[in-house]
Amino acid sequence: MRRKQVLEILDKIDDRFINEAEKPPKRKKMVVYLTSAFAACLALVICITSFFDTVNITADALALPGDARIMSHPDLDDYKDRESYLADVEIWNNELQNRKDSKEKAIASLNSFFMKASSEFLVADNNENALWSPINAYVGLSMLAEITDGESRQEILTLFGAESIEALRRQVSAVWESVYKDNGHEISVLANSLWLKEGLNYDKDAMNALAYHYYASVYQCDLGSDSADKAIGKWLNENTGGLLKNSTDKIDLSPDTVLLLYSTLFFQAKWGNEFNSASNTDGIFYGADGESSVTYMNKKLSQMNYYWHDDYSAVALNLKNGSTMWFILPDEGKTTADVLNVGAYGEMISSGITGDAWQNKKYMKVNLSVPKFDVSSTVNLKDGLGRMGVTKVFDMESSDFTAITSDSPVYISAVNQSAKVEIDEKGVKAATYIEIPGAGSAMPPEEITDFVLDRPFVFVISQNGLPLFTGVVNNL
Fold first, then answer.
1. How high is the pLDDT of residue 28?
2. How far is 296 from 463, CA to CA, in rounded Å?
3. What is the tens place of the pLDDT at every residue in 87-124?
4. Domain 3-69+105-269+376-422+431-435 coded CATH 3.50.50.60
5. Which of 259, 268, 283, 446 is 20 to 30 Å from the Cα of 195, by its Cα?
6. How far apart are CA 415 and CA 438, in angstroms?
């Protein structure tokens, strides 16, 4: 589908994507389920069929992120006079600067959220692996702000340091454009959708805002029915590359569900310099719950930056799509919680591999050993969000969803994000599914150092200074 065709569909969203409700809604407690997913690969076309009142809906939204509303530089050959050309060049330059300013604000707000939330979501008394996607939660919660109002919206705006919903829209757009990549092999693209229950009164302006600012497709169906569960599961499965099939095949919504928001972020990338499987070795991982046998991928005398802080050391590996995977190893006697609670690693990551902001680094030869892993977890974000000031949307008495519907009360009952991350000799695959129902303290002394991830560690995948997702590997 060409970009022009996609934009024409978005312009017609009132008629194409939303069915008017024919039955008045029942007055009862309503639970909002708001879901997003961070995923790893492939499917670019979403096709929902059969149970809708409309014809089959095909959404090519994944082609939109990053360039749908970016103006092309004016071409002098398209103009009859130089004055008109220069006038449009000035408009283009102003737009470019506005997007740059929005991106800087977005990076600042997202990184602040990332630092606060990672310690909230990943530090726990148990020894389980924990994963989450900061950027996915950022987009999903921003969409939530779009459909709420009053204090419910303001709490989210405050969390992200946005002075208004208009500012947050610009920031999310800037994040979208910074993350988007798709060359057929290296993939990092986003898509969103909104699902409304039949009979729910809704505000068309809110629907159009979601479609325009977040490229969200909007559907209406019998939420809570078996056919709706299967269609939503299919949508999620297609948008998570099949990595979360165990979860997406088990969609079972309550009949009280009145709307769902989904946001997906595909991610798949190869290492800039792949590991050689012939160099793999078998070894022991000294996990929080005991020892386990693992396969280590090794690089001998590899030239790279070695980073350190008071409680940890770290290395960063390039991925071909411009992303970076950071491996952060706590010092002996320290824990992953010590790293996450101090939070200095956030500044290290935002500085980038070649940035000068982080002074504690040295370019040197490293003997690197990284365990192959395939880890997954589910993290409940609700309590952590509450401690960070987002409470109104979870309270039936004070939640405000009047930006989207006059039906009340509407509230959110929980926030769960499931995640799966795989790394091997070739590269990285990752997926998360968020559900919101209604090592070293000093410079290394030698020119060669060993960096062996044989005990619990933290990892982060970032792109352009933006944290895509992070996790704690306590056991393998």
1. 39
2. 25
3. 888 888 887 787 777 777 777 777 788 888 888 888 88
4. no
5. 268
6. 9
In the chain, CATH 2.30.39.10 sits at: 271-373+439-473
Host H or E run for residue 339: helix 336-342
Nearest CA-CA partner of 413 in 436, 397, 383: 436
CA distance 359 to 357: 6
Nearest to 337 by CA among 165, 127, 31: 127
pTM value > 0.85? no
152 in Cβ contact with 165 (< 8 Å): no
- How does pLDDT run across 432-460, given as a tens digit for each residue? 444 444 433 445 656 778 889 999 999 99
Strand partners, 194: 218, 261
Half-sphere exposure of 134 (CA within 13 A, CB side): 33
Which of 37, 59, 72 is CA-nearest to residue 190? 37
DSSP state of 346: H
By the 8 A CB rule, do 310 and 318 touch?
no
What's the CATH class of domain 271-373+439-473? mainly beta
Q: Are 312 and 339 in contact (CB under 8 A)?
A: yes
